[in-house]
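New to this. Please check both lines:
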Amino acid sequence: MDKKDLKSLTFDELKMEIEGLGEKPFRAKQLYQWMHEKLASDFSEMTNLSQNFRQKLQEHYTYTSLEMVDHLVSGADGTEKFLFRLNDGNVIESVLMRYHHGNSVCISSQVGCRMGCRFCASTLGGLTRNLLPSEMLDQVYKIQKISGERVSNLVVMGTGEPLDNYENLLRFLRLLTDEHGLHISQRNVTVSTCGIVENIRKLAEERLQITLALSLHASSQEKRKELMPIAYKYELEDVLDACRYYFLQTGRRITFEYSLVGGVNDTEEDARRLSHLLDGFNCHVNLIPVNPIKERNYVQSNRTVIEAFKNKLEKYRINVTIRREMGRDIGGACGQLRKSYIDAKEREKGYENV
């Protein structure tokens, strides 16, 4: 019999499970607090639960608790990057960024990614598997426990395509914002997607108050195909229609992420087309100087070009900012720390086989 994943259960589900074990209902609240408020790493830390009860839990459930295997701190801005090992030995990465408005954590939603975006390190090895709700959640918990600081903002922009792991993502969001746990405000949560149209629409109908960030990265269908293979499945206009639907259902302004790649999507004509494309949209454009990776020949646009692109959008009354680069000296872009770790392990294997 497969064991249930305890930390992925909602409070109401947990109450039913505990009653099924023959325990009193108040035990569910104690257990939920240990998992989601006190952030216990294992059952042994749950000192107000009886040994017999903890033994039952051990027998019937799995308990997700990530192991930190690497921790880098930027000397430039204090950004912290974490590499965590999952129970099955796979590794994922997460980032802690400190802003004046509070601490923000960027988490992964999958082990690897199958979207194939040309400039992203996350997708180089393909998709290994989806993360469980508990594995997404425990990235936040471990960072909060290690740093000793409250996390107030959350972005699902790390390794993986969140809407490719839709059901687990939705459960994670409900656990994260539940009043019995960390109770992070939905308005402080951003979910990024490269544009899975049907799941953008499904998410819209949940009417959550999270921010949807679309990885746009191009001003036309042709250029999007060059950078993002998903464009071969979804027309740009269909993706934008889904974003309009999201705004209609939730009232939440859309964020468009636009990675500027030198000589590819950063021309004055790109800026003009992008302005036309987003005309009338209640949106914000986040310009991202692309973080080059050695496996691709893309380069970052120079600062003058980036500023000119921003000015052009502002001329057309598009709300736009340039993302502040954080953690550049520690490989701040998605997937770089994990890729380095995997490459090092492969080299070790090679040496052993010589």
Q: What stands out?
A: The two ends are 42 Å apart (CA to CA).
